[in-house]
């Protein structure tokens, strides 16, 4: 999905700033923005009346709240806070306007089915490293349930109230300065072990420089992120997929992904090397191929091994 009507005007109103944007084709707002949501209880998210979506985030100029809705082929957005201009300027990219699937050729029937299912779901790019990096580090080597619990606690206890006339409980994630002020026992209370805490603090100390990864993109952007101790290929890929919409960033090191890809494309489980080998025909679009696989229903078997859940608060 590329193009769409250019900025039709970011205008001040009595109720924050607003903008209207016309995407070039059908757009499933919820599905496009879903990768930015960390569980059903994510305090930075709210699903409002008539399908309107609320998202609170940090920006380089301060916190922002964004409300997005779609009707009649148009997207209408309102934003509040010091970062309102930035989130509205980034609205088309956030909703996948820069996603370019041209040149992608499905080599498997299941991938082709997923491609058809994703016609209204381009890959978005939020243009911001920090928020998605914090969430990705929290998800390192733990279950989603554990990571999302920690994300909720950090947002509630160390983030800030989202600006504007927002739904009750909407929170902005803690910025780098706020995260660096979290004391050791508070990390423990949030269920974050020492390794992930050290990684987050190391990232917070260079947070401004890490935002350059969005401009670099691709392998260079991932390499910049991996200069931070504790950030490896998996974390960098998870950030790349969301921050700059990288269509080739495969989450190497994921607990389930090689099995999902292997069963879907070969009928058997694979390791990371085998997964990359079978995805080789999609080089340049390997993450896109994985997205299409999942859209077509590919998943790990329910009887397969699960990552054990741990509660670091009791350790």
From TrEMBL:
Keywords: DNA damage, DNA repair. InterPro entries: Alkylbase_DNA_Glycosylase/TA, DNA_glycosylase. One of its GO terms (biological process) is DNA alkylation repair. Residues 1-24 are annotated as: Disordered. One of its GO terms (cellular component) is cytoplasm. SUPFAM superfamilies: DNA-glycosylase. One of its GO terms (molecular function) is DNA-3-methyladenine glycosylase activity. This is DNA-3-methyladenine glycosylase 2 family protein.
